[in-house]
Amino acid sequence: MARNILIFSDGTGQAGGLTPDQEVSNVYKLYRATRSDSDSSVDARKQIAFYDAGLGTAPENLGVLGRAWRRAKNLVAQALGLGIDQNIADCYAAIIRYWTPGDRIFLVGFSRGAFTARCVGGLLAHCGVPTTAPGPDGLKRDPKSANALAMRAVKIYQHGSVEAHPEADDPALRDPRRAERLRLAAEFRREHGSGSPEPGGDSNAVPYFIGVFDTVGTIANLGPLWLVIAPAALAVGALGLCWSGIGPRLLTGAPAVFFALAAGLGARLVYESRYGSENGWLRQAMARLPALKPFRFYDTQLNARVPFARHAMSIDENRDDFRVVMWDEDDDTAIMAENGARRMRQRWFAGVHSDIGGSYPEAESRLSDIALEWMAKEMKGLPDPPQFSAGRLNLSPSPLGMQHDELKAHPGLLPGARLGIERRGALDESVLLRLSAPAALHYDVTKPYRPEGLRTHPQAAEFYRDAPTSAGFAPEMI
């Protein structure tokens, strides 16, 4: 009997289900609606759901000092993208433990969790799902063994990605280590009975469905890094003051020079982390850190063997580190499946990043309910849909719902830019309804909805005939 194996990968800092009234993402809401438990109508014999908390999350059952330490550690993890390989391995390990031949794999993610889900899809295409292993005991499916095997597969999938240049026209530059990676993947499949033993051959399993909310391909989020750098600079300065003592020597001599240099360096790092360009020295230096090297997002093609994929994307997100990464869509990837269902859909929705993927207070989640309703409908409309527990997904979508703005909510904290959207991907009907309305709430101001990113979009151009262009907008980005 074929089962559904659902893997849910949440966004940065998201760990749903910790408290009853927690602000949770759309990923967790879908997990809650499809998991089996004593109060669920989902048949546990036919469906298994696994939830992986987002990058930089931590358990809550820690003391005061423990929580402070974990928060500092998690802030660094979120800023630098540390631990993304473990998130990918956790999801893949769950598949190793639960999958049997014939089962359907569903991958769902938000933000950097969407990055994780798409990487897991690529990992499955490379390595498949192990069914055997060398040794008398064969394949071990306990958590520790599955995770160790998953980490090995992750290293194969990430092999050579640091040298990849996705924007290059020359295929040899786009993915120079591809042949080596395919050879390593073939060795893995041969050893573990997970597909063709030939380089470039097919694995024994790929996702049946991938559904993602606003994929973020920049794993290192340098915006809040100044929250780490500034205290560090102050600590160094404090050491200098302690060394100098209290008295006339406070602002003289070597200690004063030491303090001034530390403060100056800290200020410069703060400035670069907040306002530096993508090609600035700090961001380039961060990109060379060994911990960040493995997961440059080089794989934007949807594997031809994946039957169905859906992507909900933000029109209004204006933070540099949250640029959406679309699937490359062409006649081969967006074609209709054999049964008449469209293989790929990428759709634009009104609102910023978490207005699409959720995690705002429930009273402010009318826009995110739109994207969630769409994704759930797409999943339910599949030829072999997952089970949803009755009454677990009660939504109140509204195209006139509150739109958030993280740059206004945290002024000066995050580097921002006015972004255009790509012409690929259709606008959701709710976007046209919001454009047609006299006004809607934009964080703190009620005004007509006229995002500059839609000015030249063919579905929205008629709404901009009399609307002035906002200062600083770059039409070439569209």
Explain what this protein looks like in three dimensions.
This is DUF2235 domain-containing protein. Residues 3-378 form the T6SS Phospholipase effector Tle1-like catalytic domain. By secondary structure, the chain is of the alpha/beta class. Helices cover 36% and strands 9% of the residues. It contains 14 helices and 9 strands. The strands form 2 sheets. The chain has a 7-stranded parallel β-sheet with strand order 2-1-3-4-5-6-7, with helices on both faces. β8 and β9 (445-447) form a beta hairpin. α3 (84-98) packs across α5 (143-158). It is globular. Residues 290-294 and 471-478 have low confidence and may be disordered.
How would you sum up this structure in a few lines?
The protein has helices at 26-34, 64-80, 84-98, 112-127, 143-158, 171-174, 178-192, 226-244, 253-275, 281-287, 353-357, 366-380, 406-409, 429-436, and strands at 4-9, 47-52, 104-110, 209-213, 308-314, 344-349, 426-427, 440-442, 445-447. By secondary structure, the chain is α/β, with parallel strands linked by helices.
Care to count the β-strands? 9
Q: What strand order characterises the main sheet?
A: 2-1-3-4-5-6-7
- By secondary-structure content and strand pairing, the structural class works out as alpha/beta
Rounded to an integer in angstroms, the radius of gyration calculated over CA atoms is: 24 Å
Relative strand content: 5-15%
Helix content: 25-40%
How many helical elements? 14
